[in-house]
Design brief:
With 252 residues, this protein is an alpha/beta fold. Helix content is 27%, strand content 19%. 27% of the residues are buried.
Length: 252
């Protein structure tokens, strides 16, 4: 780009996306005189899903603004909790998510907390993921910056950590989704319902039948759940999430 020169400042939390030379304050940046500030930010490596306010010489501007020579562009991260625009003002549907193929553990933990988290075990490709995000109004979670730059997605968010514990905390902190633990199947995302032992007996091993009396079953895939050997670990995840983030906000 050989057009007007501007000064670009990225918020510290966005430095992870930028080359080292772009992490200082007031980085001289050439533009072509026609591209939007959104394009300039993406050219610096930052997905727009991670951008909150944009200030030009101290005044807030939309991503479509075309910066002029000598202007200072300041790029801030998203506010937390982040509010996702709804389809209409009467939409009260709890926030829903779509996770790419590399985030299976995060998907299961969100489901454990009762969050609607769609996930495919196989890589269906970026175009299909973006299309599903738009069609089902799901927030797309990914560690793939290229995927998050697709214009057709409904909304998206970069998952910063590769640790499932930190990933979960990041998503809950950022979006404050409504939490309803133990109400969703961790295998398929379907709703769970109480089930008596007689109705699910043919799906249980003899030892399980003898040792447990409380069961739940998925209404979609019919998988059966009970408080088995892994329940203490799962209870810890649920308890920690509720203690730190509460039940969440259905309007988030």
């Amino acid at each position: 780009m050989n057009g007007p020169g501007i000064q670009l400042t990225l918020a510290p939390e966005l430095h992870v996306f930028a080359a080292p030379g772009r992490r200082a304050e007031r980085v001289p940046t050439a533009t072509d005189g026609a591209s939007s500030v959104g394009h300039v930010v993406e050219s610096a490596g930052v997905p727009l899903t991670e951008v909150g306010r944009l200030l030009v010489d101290g005044h807030e501007v939309p991503v479509s603004y075309v910066p002029q020579a000598g202007e200072l562009v300041e790029v801030f991260g998203v506010d937390r909790p982040q509010r996702i625009p709804r389809r209409d003002e009467d939409d009260t549907t709890p926030l829903r998510f779509l996770l790419d193929v590399h985030l299976g553990t995060l998907a299961r933990r969100l489901r454990l907390l009762g969050v609607d988290a769609a996930y495919e075990n196989e890589d269906i490709g970026d175009p299909a993921l973006a299309t599903r995000s738009a069609a089902e109004h799901r927030v797309l979670l990914s560690r793939d910056r290229g995927l998050l730059r697709r214009r057709e997605i409904y909304a998206g968010a970069y998952v910063y950590s590769d640790s499932p514990d930190e990933q979960l905390r990041d998503v809950l902190s950022r979006f404050a989704p409504l939490l309803a633990p133990w109400t969703r199947c961790t295998a398929c995302n379907g709703p769970l319902r109480e089930a008596d032992k007689d109705s699910v007996g043919d799906r249980l091993q003899h030892g399980t039948q003898r040792s447990y009396d409380v069961f739940a079953q998925c209404a979609d895939c019919e998988r059966v759940y009970w408080r088995g050997a892994h329940h203490a670990r799962l209870e810890r995840i649920v308890s920690e999430a509720l203690a730190e983030f509460g039940p969440g906000d259905a309007a988030a």
